[in-house]
Amino acid sequence: MELNKTGQSLLLNCLMEMGDLMLDAGAEINRVEETLTRMGAAYGAFRTDVFVITSVICMTMEFPGCEPVTEMRRIHSDGQQDYYRLDKLNGISRSCCATPVSPAELKEQLNSVASGHKPLWRRLSGSVLAAAAFAVFFGGTPLDGLIAGLFALGICVLKDRLGETQINTIAMDLIVALLVGLGVGGVTHLFPVLHMDAILIGDIMLLIPGLALTNAIRNILVGDTISGVVRLTETLLWAAALAGGIMVALTVLNYLH
Amino acid sequence: MTVFVQLLTAFLGALGFAVLFGVLRRCLWVAAVGGMLTWGVYLAVDAWLHVEFLSCLAAAAFAVTISELLARKLKLPATMFITPAIIPLVPGGTLYYAMSFAVHGDLEQARSYGLRTLLAALAIAGGISLVTVLRELRARR
Q: Are residues B10 and A246, on separate chains, in Cβ contact within 8 Å?
């Protein structure tokens, strides 16, 4: 496809959007770089340079007989996986690499992915099921599982509310962990038949950045050192915030008893 | 009996996370079975060797291997299966007990559980990397 100067910058802007969406859906760094490079080549750029880290995408494309075009974008993402979205983006990239569509049409396709909101019911049902199952997995009774599931609902709502205030993840984890710890402690105090440890572990499984941690280490191992180290530091801080929140809650409960 | 309950809840827990992370609907069950099998491998290796680190390592390596095989067969990214499969190995329990013992002033126990948490995290990462590195070596030959 022959693109004029306007078309080129429009395309570059679309590719930025695409990379942004991919990172936001939890794609690995090298996958984003690979996809953008391939898209550039598919549209006829003879040289495409892409640099992606967790917080920035930089991209320069050179088309024959034209000045190079460059754009960068700051990314704000917590790396929460959304495979549904990722699959759609992969589909777009695959079909586009085979038969490139006009940048305007590409933009439209990307917009439809971006506006497709992560359904709330999916998040709620997933969280409840996971927390309930892991409360029992770690030695709780079915009743403990039920309570852990109810608290998982609370976690989802709380995270949504706090997310709207653009609070940073560390502070959010601290607050959520503290409130969940206090809540579970209170409920188990009122109903001694429940097991506090099992319920709390079930809910901790939702908050623990275990996957982000393994992803960070994988990034380092495949050569994306900077992103890996940034993510690793972040996840350790998140884990510390989670532990801090729960520990404060446990200390308060310990004191009250 | 406990083994059965653990396998069942590992299945349900992996299913929960698969739903949460938006794994495609037609792959949900496959992803959840992956979590259950991974925990099965963990239990089997643990019963044989009695070393938590190695069991975790082996189970993580197993999870990545079957996930990549499945991904190739179903033509989907492997992460979609790795994530739910790894979930039962995430050391939420030991992390909690480390914190709980620390708050109650039993630092000896807290340190022991804290170390176990760290080792489990390392083992998971190690298992994943082991398979990744081996596959890349094979691909390059």
A: no
Strand arrangement, sheet containing A47-53:
A47-53, A56-62, A69-74
Q: Rounded CA gap, A137 and A132, in Å? A: 9
3-state secondary structure at position A46? coil
For chain B, what are the domain ranges? 2-140
Q: Mean pLDDT over all residues of chain A?
A: 87
- ipTM score for this prediction: 0.89
Give the whole-angstrom CA distance, residue A48 versus residue A68. 9
State the CB neighbour count (10 A cutoff) for residue A26. Answer: 22
CB B84 within 8 A of CB B69: no
pLDDT band for position A118 (cuts 50, 70, 90): low
B35 CA: distance to closest CA in chain A (Å) = 12
For residue B99, the chain A residues in CB contact (below 8 A) are: 243, 246-247, 250
pLDDT band with cut points at 50, 70 and 90 for residue B1? low
Query: Is there a contact between B132 and A251 if contact means CB atoms under 8 Å apart?
Result: no
Q: Where do the structural domains in chain A lie, given as residue ranges? A: 5-115, 120-256
Please state the pTM of the whole predicted model: 0.85
Nearest in space to B27 (alpha carbons), one of A8, A105, A254, B35? B35
